[in-house]
TrEMBL record:
Gene: lepB
Localization terms from the record: Membrane
Gene Ontology molecular function: serine-type endopeptidase activity; signal peptidase activity
PANTHER family registered for this protein in UniProt: CHLOROPLAST PROCESSING PEPTIDASE, SIGNAL PEPTIDASE I
Protein known as: Signal peptidase I
Record EC number: 3.4.21.89
Organism: Leptospira levettii
GO BP terms, alphabetized: signal peptide processing
NCBIfam families named among the record's database cross-references: sigpep_I_bact
Family annotation (Gene3D superfamilies): Umud Fragment, subunit A
Pfam families attached to this UniProt entry: Peptidase_S26 (PF10502)
Transmembrane domains' residue ranges: 12-31
EC main group: hydrolase
Recorded family membership: Belongs to the peptidase S26 family.
Membrane topology of this protein: Single-pass type II membrane protein
Length: 176
């Protein structure tokens, strides 16, 4: 007696192969476009943390009340809603922020200087207009529903020193 093989219909074979592939493709596209945001770094504002030309991934899924000091975020620019910038959170609502001789003070206490990685070379071609060699800033209090952001490369970066405190609604992603 010979064993007979049961024939599996083509429709069942296709479903068993294409259904998992379709689910996997759908999930990967959802994560790529709704959860993670790939960003190509186009300037030196966050060097040495984020180097020009690198691609970093930012998460769009975050809770604004869970943002902490030191988190790197992407924000819409208050001066141009079509542009964005990347900076580090230094102050939360109610905090008093000041900068004296390049040291950042939050509520009267100096922030850990290792929070701002120093570039490998200190060859700054020219200090931009309007900024001092010591990078001083008088104390300001961060208003409710805003954050104070500071670029790692303070000589070249655009941040809350120029734009003022950033509304929490303008933050749309956090470094993953």
């Amino acid at each position: 007696m010979s064993k007979t093989k049961s024939k599996v219909p083509l429709k069942t074979k296709l479903i068993s192969i294409l259904l998992p592939m379709g689910i996997g493709l759908g999930l990967s596209l959802y994560v790529k476009y709704k959860v993670l945001l790939p960003v190509s770094i186009t300037n030196v504002y966050m060097e040495p943390t984020l180097k020009q030309g690198d691609t970093k991934y930012f998460s769009k899924w975050f809770r604004k009340d869970n943002l902490g000091i030191g988190d790197v975020v992407i924000c819409h620019s208050p001066s141009d809603p079509n542009s964005y910038f990347i900076a580090r959170i230094i102050g939360k609502p109610g905090d008093s922020i000041s900068i004296q001789k390049r040291f950042v003070f939050r509520n009267g206490t100096i922030l850990d200087p290792t929070l701002f990685p120093e570039p490998a070379t200190q060859n700054i071609p020219l200090i931009p207009q309007g900024k001092t060699e010591h990078d001083d800033m008088n104390p300001i209090t961060v208003p409710e529903k805003t954050f104070f952001l500071l670029a790692d490369n303070r000589e070249m970066g655009v941040d809350s020193r120029i734009l003022g405190p950033i509304q929490e609604s303008q933050i749309f992603a956090v470094l993953w």
